[in-house]
Design a protein that fits this description.
Number of strands: 8
CATH class: Alpha Beta
Helix content: 40-55%
Number of helices: 12
Strand content: 15-25%
Low-confidence stretches: none
Order of helices and strands: EHEHEHEHHEHHHEHHEHEH
CATH architecture: Alpha-Beta Barrel
Mean pLDDT: 96
CATH superfamily: Aldolase class I
Largest sheet: 8 strands, parallel, barrel
Shape: globular
Radius of gyration: 17 Å
Length: 252
């Protein structure tokens, strides 16, 4: 059975001190809890300090983005080599906010995914449709295009280390959440795509998260779905009690 993975994407929140306080409290809240893999994704400025606080524990560290190059003249970018050096195990790639505000394309997502995997970073690859695309009946076409382009040329053996996050853009930061049935329908579709692209056996191993206004009061219903293997949590990951409640969900 796939082990659930809950990741907290802090986006542009928390100073270094606030980040350390948060993970210190979270470690106490989750002491002894082993049923869920837990990941936190602070801003770049807090990665080193949070990594030090998490050292030797069960909570994993993620970055919120990565450059596809190892080094070079890329002002403002952070390479996969640097993320590994600072202690990251995961990296979020292709989040809808990166796509919408900073010009992230499927081409750059694909380059970043390959770079992450080549440096032993586990990518959390975000895909999802806009409200307009859903209303026009284009959800499956859009998601299929993203999955195929984002994973183009990815080695099957390396692919088992990635996580897919289905994040309907219309549900991110809006308070709207895809119904458990809507999320399951798309995530089952994604698993089918992975089966066709790689193999049925590999598709059963790869974890698929749901993201989009995940909260303590909807996580149970979401996690009761067979193809929802966890959540990529935004706003609800900024408060220890809220995030700990989501982490402690029992798989349906």
């Amino acid at each position: 059975m796939r082990k659930p993975i809950i990741a907290g994407n802090w986006k542009m929140h928390k100073t270094v001190g606030e980040a350390i306080d948060f993970v210190t409290s979270l470690q106490k809240e989750l002491e002894g809890w082993e049923r869920t893999e837990v990941v936190v994704a602070p801003s770049f400025t807090a990665l080193a300090s949070v990594a030090e606080r998490l050292r030797g524990g069960r909570i994993a560290l993620a970055a919120q983005d990565v450059c596809w190059e190892e080094e070079g003249a890329y002002t403002g970018e952070v390479s996969p080599l640097m993320l590994r050096d600072v202690g990251c195990q995961y990296v979020i790639i292709g989040h809808s906010e990166r796509r919408a505000y900073f010009g992230e394309s499927d081409e750059t997502v694909n380059k970043k995914v390959k770079a992450a995997l080549s440096h032993d970073l586990n990518p959390i690859i975000c895909v999802g449709e806009s409200l307009e695309e859903r209303e026009h009946g284009d959800t499956f076409r859009v998601v299929e295009g993203q999955v195929k382009e984002d994973l183009r040329g990815v080695d099957a053996e390396a692919a088992r280390n990635m996580v897919i996050a289905y994040e309907p853009v219309w549900a991110i930061g809006t308070g709207k959440t895809a119904s458990p049935g809507q999320a399951q329908e798309v995530q089952s579709f994604i698993r089918g795509l992975l089966s066709d692209m790689f193999s049925p056996a590999l598709a059963e191993v790869i974890r698929i998260q749901y993201g989009g206004s995940v909260k303590p009061d909807n996580i149970d219903e979401l996690m009761a779905q067979p193809d929802i293997d966890g959540a990529l949590v935004g706003g609800a990951s900024l408060e220890v009690g809220s995030f700990a409640r989501i982490v402690r969900v029992e798989r349906g």
